[in-house]
Predict the structure.
Amino acid sequence: MNTAVCGLQFGDEGKGKIVDLLSVDNDVVVRYAGGANAGHTVVVDNKKYKRHLLPCSFSSDSIGVLAAGMVVDPLILIKEIQESSCNTQIMIDRNCHVVMPWHHKEDIDRCGLLGTTQRGIGPCYAEKANRVNATRIDNLLVRLKDENVKSRFLSTSILKHYLDAALFLQDYIFDTGEFLRDCIKSHKNILFEGAQSIHLDVDHGDCYPFVTSSATGPSAIPQACGLPNIYLDRIVGIIKCYTTRVGTGPFPTEIRDEKLARQIREKGNEYGTTTGRPRRIGWLDIEKTQRAIKLTGATEIALMHTDTMSDIDPYVYKNGRLCRMPKWTNHNDSAVKVFIRMLRSELGIPIKIISFGQDREDVKFVQEIKNGSVVYSNKSEQIIKSL
Ligand code: IMP
Ligand code: MG
């Protein structure tokens, strides 16, 4: 079975937590696009883990793959590999492009207006498309010995770090497309972890140029992973019951009441994992979510941060106006179930998971009963079916 997880807002919806949750049912977890601009915070047994490049499977020993569509920062990558548990096998595609120090510099010097994460993502993808002077990871060691490349390093100590990283990473470089095609042939379960979100997609994001530089949605998977015939059985779209956005760019449902925005920001710990920037806070935009579902093909929803909205009057933007929804105290309140039923009817796909806290354990699986009532379960539908 092939499953994809994707963001339906502006990133930071909580994809990492859902990927971690689903990873236990999967043999392989694949990151397919973007780079260390992504930031996932996952709490397992009260311990906080942060990831930028490796797939977010903390709870399983599934194989982690970084597919060819990614751009990797070798210094961040080795740090994450060294920190990750040693029983997780990591495979980096040989065609991944490498973020070089001048990509960081260009991102900082020239992309400021876009409010980027300054991780060198745009300049690296630009150099990849430009081809002249770009560096694929399987060629990194050779490139670092080239005088023209060496001269672009402003410091010999950074060059040395890159050389060390290139040597370290050699053992992790594979033709992951070949590996994944074999996995599909032998009916392994594969989970594809989207980074950023469909509204930040370079082709489909409607706030271009305030988007990222990669194709973010599930339609990027075949190309980025070398899996032309892949069929995705399940596409889990992630939303929070409000919206956040970091960086500049249009945000129609942004909350102007700074006190309320601050309250939600503090409660939800809405600060960028990558940059530490305070996230802008807004209401859930049903119209944008409907469009995101069309663009991603999401087959179900995971609703995150219901705890953050507790004791706050929730609003959603639909049919051209802000609508107030009943307030809840905790996820068992009937008001949460009203919210879930409203989403079900507006979005046309089932809400299958709700999250009500930071920890891995703080989730419930939502079951739909014929008369429309909402019942939670501690076990996923897949597990119940297999019992
Ligand atoms: P870049 O991807 O660093 O070039 O940044 C482009 C835009 O995408 C900026 O608005 C960033 O804040 C946003 N962005 C990139 N990655 C993420 C993410 O993982 N979460 C949220 N926003 C992101
Ligand atoms: Mg994030």
Q: What stands out?
A: The first strand starts at residue 2 and ends at 7. The mean pLDDT is 94.
